[in-house]
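Re: the multi-chain job from yesterday

Posting the exact lines I submitted so nobody has to dig through the queue logs.
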Amino acid sequence: DTAVSQTPKYLVTQMGNDKSIKCEQNLGHDTMYWYKQDSKKFLKIMFSYNNKELIINETVPNRFSPKSPDKAHLNLHINSLELGDSAVYFCASSQFRNTGELFFGEGSRLTVL
Amino acid sequence: KNQVEQSPQSLIILEGKNCTLQCNYTVSPFSNLRWYKQDTGRGPVSLTIMTFSENTKSNGRYTATLDADTKQSSLHITASQLSDSASYICVVSPGNTDKLIFGTGTRLQVFP
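And the result, structure tokens for all chains:
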């Protein structure tokens, strides 16, 4: 029944490793997002896909690469992890790009040691 | 510069009391304003979405107001409950871009 689901919920890894976070939505939405929430709880957009097409690519290091195999899935792969990558990453989806309500996943807490 | 500012940063109230959270924005053009509730360790959940023509919108004990002229919004919580303890985030959609403008949130704690 979960609308937007992310895995894993927790991820602890060493610097330099490569890791992936997966996201799936069963709402039939066309648009999906990745947000990063830092220690101050500020949410910042990273990427947005509409119908598998990249429409937002914020100033994010190219170590971060999103992939959307279909419009229900948006995965985030991170290469060569750094300490500063530690944060909570939220996946979200919406029916309409600019005006639609955002439905968030539960978040994936990434800790880089 | 498009910005959303929220006040207070944090708030402590007793169970059963009312409270009001503020949101001021300098976003143009304006499409809609949203309030989200984020419980600790959970994802944000939408409370209300208001367009410029809507002055008030309620969702149970939550009532949001919007003054598009002064670019201010408030979220009023009536008869607070312990479960209202959370962060409340104000978000503005400019409408001409997919990038929403997020406030930094107000952390509300309700004590018995």
